Amino acid sequence: MIAPSGDRVIDRGGKRQYSFERTFDSGLDRALARNGHSNHRSSERKLQHILRGAARVFCEKGFEGASIRDISRATGVSLSGLYYYFESKQKLLYLIQHHTFTSVLGQLEKRLASVHDPAERLRILIRNHLDYFMSHPVEMKVLSHEDEALEAPYRKEVAAVKRRYYEIARGIFADLRKQGAARELNPRVAVLTLFGMMNWVYTWHKPKVDPGAEAMAETITSIFLTGVANGNGREALRAPAPVAVDSVH
């Protein structure tokens, strides 16, 4: 198979892996070693080192304001080394987004594999999301703020991974409704509202003040399933009328 950029893709057991991720050769080894990064022995670790540095630069300067030279300084990899493996900032932004979403999705699918109760699956989805993004706030900011910066054909491939993630969440919501644990709400609105609750935690969460991922996940799960009403004064609250179920676009 050929990736959108023209890079060859190897399919191993259904897992796509880009050939350039496997073929970081001695040239990059030497470039990293010259700049004090000789401990990055595997190509995957070298790639992640560069992507983390690029994410920091995009986070601080914005995608448009960042340059490959900035990323070179942040990572300690020469300009020629970066251009050899990444022909543009678009490639780096694509890899940051693709790696982040596939990492979150892959971990979620493992955690859900043996769990069937919809409410518990919801807790796992929320905890998995918060676990990753609360420990990767830089990547979260890049994903949130630079989503529109990614161009075709990269955008299409990242969108496919995001779509799979959304469909898992929507399936969990559908199972909750079948159990009678969720009202007949518009599923698209409900699921995207949940993601809205989770995606912006990084903008206000303070580790020294606010709870960690596990407690945060319990709170968000509770709010999503039962709201914040405690039953007092319930007569003053009107339940919303059912909204017609729409199709996903």
Question: What layout of secondary structure does this protein have?
Answer:
Elements (H helix, E strand, L loop, with lengths): L8 E4 L2 E4 H4 L3 H9 L8 H19 L6 H8 L3 H7 L3 H24 L5 H18 L1 H9 L8 H26 L7 H13 L13 H14 L23
Antiparallel strand pairs: 1-2
Structural commentary:
There is one protein chain. The protein starts with 8 loop residues before the first strand and ends in a 23-residue tail after the last helix. The N terminus and C terminus are likely disordered. It has 2 domains: 87 residues, Arc Repressor Mutant, subunit A, CATH 1.10.10; 143 residues, Tetracycline Repressor, domain 2. With 249 residues, it is mainly alpha-helical. Helices cover 61% and strands 3% of the residues. It is elongated, with a radius of gyration of 21 Å. It has a two-stranded antiparallel ribbon. Strand 1 and strand 2 form a beta hairpin.
CATH superfamily annotation of the largest domain: Tetracycline Repressor, domain 2
Number of domains: 2
Query: Alpha-carbon distance between the termini?
Result: 28 Å
Radius of gyration: 21 Å
Looking at CATH, which topology of the largest domain would you report?
Answer: Tetracycline Repressor, domain 2
Largest sheet: 2 strands, antiparallel
Keywords:
single chain; about 250 residues; mainly alpha; Arc Repressor Mutant, subunit A; Tetracycline Repressor, domain 2; 2 domains; two-stranded antiparallel ribbon; about 60% helix; elongated; disordered N terminus; disordered C terminus
Short description:
Helix content is 61%, strand content 3%.
